[in-house]
């Protein structure tokens, strides 16, 4: 029952992000600023390692680069690939640091949540938001409408919402209306 609530919550969150992309972009920007402030505070007050804080701040800078094209995130763009690599590096540095230094579990969990997990999770859930947005800019030499119909799949939804819809239908199949 608990997994069903999580899946329903993620599905609802993905729907909200898809509906309110401008607000979502603003919220993610504030989360990046908050994470940056936390990292600077940890460096100044807690004397966390310079390398770990520096990589975290650079990761936040890369996240700002991803936010420039939000909700359109290309999985093959250098920014996206770099952000994925930096997430792995950040985790390695954090595990290495917390293995050597003792901190209560709640503080370690807070660091991982606010500095490592929340922003990539927000980008992950919002991956499908750009798929159902109408094209609004024209590339040089491209017709916006024909480019949209030739590159996109007509009427098909892709991404995380399709996965959530499949899970929802597998767990709670919809009832057929009888006429």
UniProtKB/TrEMBL annotation:
<dbReference type="GO" id="GO:0097020">
    <property type="term" value="F:COPII receptor activity"/>
</dbReference>
<keyword id="KW-0472">Membrane</keyword>
<keyword id="KW-1133">Transmembrane helix</keyword>
<dbReference type="InterPro" id="IPR007277">
    <property type="entry name" value="Svp26/Tex261"/>
</dbReference>
<feature type="transmembrane region" description="Helical">
    <location>
        <begin position="80"/>
        <end position="99"/>
    </location>
</feature>
<protein>
    <recommendedName>
        <fullName>Protein TEX261</fullName>
    </recommendedName>
</protein>
<dbReference type="GO" id="GO:0006888">
    <property type="term" value="P:endoplasmic reticulum to Golgi vesicle-mediated transport"/>
</dbReference>
<comment type="similarity">
    <text>Belongs to the SVP26 family.</text>
</comment>
<dbReference type="GO" id="GO:0000139">
    <property type="term" value="C:Golgi membrane"/>
</dbReference>
<dbReference type="Pfam" id="PF04148">
    <property type="entry name" value="Erv26"/>
</dbReference>
<dbReference type="GO" id="GO:0030134">
    <property type="term" value="C:COPII-coated ER to Golgi transport vesicle"/>
</dbReference>
<feature type="transmembrane region" description="Helical">
    <location>
        <begin position="108"/>
        <end position="129"/>
    </location>
</feature>
<keyword id="KW-0812">Transmembrane</keyword>
<dbReference type="GO" id="GO:0005789">
    <property type="term" value="C:endoplasmic reticulum membrane"/>
</dbReference>
